[in-house]
């Protein structure tokens, strides 16, 4: 059954039954709605009078007016084409809804939207038809309920934060500390993507193609790529908090690799792989037919990246630096 908004008649019925001291469960049963719908409606559209608190309460007509106003705000990106195009343009270059809304305010634009309005559009019918969610930092297909968004630590707990990562990893003193990310391509190429990995000390890059963006597929592929290396050469990997990495717990028992995570909206904390992605985009632009690339093609790109002398390595190539570190393990 399609979702339908509560109407004025239902809101008036809710008001009458609340005045009759009926419970939320009974009200929901009477109007044929889920109890959560009724509870959320009462909480969201309750009238608050700060000067005369005794007048505060739920009023059906007032609740209907509030709901209509809220829908109108949410539809602003549908009604104003130039504003919508500007928002979508910034989404596609990697700006978050918070950054877009904040910039509109800073620039003094007459037409503005809040970040919640942008999220509502992205996950609404229009935004979903354009697959706008794939441009978000965390790239979820569906937005989780508000109560689910806060405890994200369940997927990425505090003890896996980059701030808990040993200090020597940051200084690049030890070999075997990696960073990982996902390179996304234009919608026309489907779900195909490229995972990028870089060893922090030697800047050695590994790129491999995925035909799926599911976390299970990605982690299994990542482990199969990393497993041939000696365990000391794959001590840890630092990721962002993209949903593709939520199966990180497989790494420790699977290949003995620790996982660390950047702060939300802080990709610069894994600057090595961000730098790699910029270099790799020379050969893998967003419109590249990535699905048609073979394993040999991917290896050729890696060889080119790893065969380029780097000033930070004393003009050695990443391949040379990586081999030297492996030789020390023998």
Automatic annotation (TrEMBL):
**Domain of life assignment:** Bacteria
Q: Which Pfam families match?
A: HTH_38
Q: Which UniProt keywords apply?
A: DNA recombination
Q: Which residue intervals define the domain Integrase catalytic in the entry?
A: 162-326
Annotated Basic residues bias:
138-151
Which residue intervals make up region (Disordered)? 138-162
- PROSITE patterns xref list: INTEGRASE
Give the protein's recorded name: IS30 family transposase
Q: Which organism is it from?
A: Sulfitobacter profundi
Question: Mind giving the lineage of the organism this protein is from?
Answer: Bacteria, Pseudomonadati, Pseudomonadota, Alphaproteobacteria, Rhodobacterales
């Amino acid at each position: 059954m399609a979702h339908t908004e509560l109407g004025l008649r239902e809101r008036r019925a809710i008001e009458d039954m609340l005045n009759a001291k009926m419970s939320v469960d009974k009200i929901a049963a009477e109007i044929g709605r889920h109890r959560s719908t009724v509870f959320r409606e009462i909480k969201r559209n309750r009238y608050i009078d700060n000067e005369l608190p005794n007048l505060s309460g739920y009023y059906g007509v007032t609740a209907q007016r509030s709901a209509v106003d809220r829908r109108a705000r949410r539809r602003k990106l549908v009604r104003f084409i130039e504003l919508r195009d500007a928002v979508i343009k910034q989404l596609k270059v990697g700006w978050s809804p918070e950054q877009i809304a904040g910039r509109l305010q800073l620039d003094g634009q007459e037409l503005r939207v809040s970040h919640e309005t942008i999220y509502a559009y992205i996950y609404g019918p229009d935004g979903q038809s354009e697959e706008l969610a794939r441009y978000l930092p965390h790239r979820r297909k569906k937005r989780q309920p508000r109560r689910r968004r806060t405890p994200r630590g369940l997927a990425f707990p505090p003890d896996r934060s980059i701030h808990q990562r040993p200090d020597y990893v940051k200084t690049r003193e030890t070999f075997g500390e990696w960073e990982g990310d996902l390179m996304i391509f234009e919608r026309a190429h489907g779900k195909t993507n490229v995972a990028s990995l870089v060893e922090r000390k030697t800047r050695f890059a590994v790129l491999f193609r995925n035909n799926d963006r599911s976390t299970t597929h990605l982690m299994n592929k990542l482990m199969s790529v990393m497993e041939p290396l000696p365990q000391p050469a794959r001590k840890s990997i630092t990721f962002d908090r993209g949903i593709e990495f939520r199966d990180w717990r497989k790494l420790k028992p699977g290949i003995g690799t620790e996982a660390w995570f950047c702060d939300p909206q802080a990709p610069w904390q894994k600057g090595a792989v961000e730098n790699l992605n910029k270099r790799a985009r020379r050969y893998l632009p967003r419109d590249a037919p990535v699905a048609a690339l073979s394993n040999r093609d991917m290896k050729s790109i890696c060889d080119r990246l790893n065969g380029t002398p780097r000033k930070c390595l004393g003009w050695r190539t990443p391949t040379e630096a990586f081999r030297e570190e492996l030789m020390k393990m023998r």
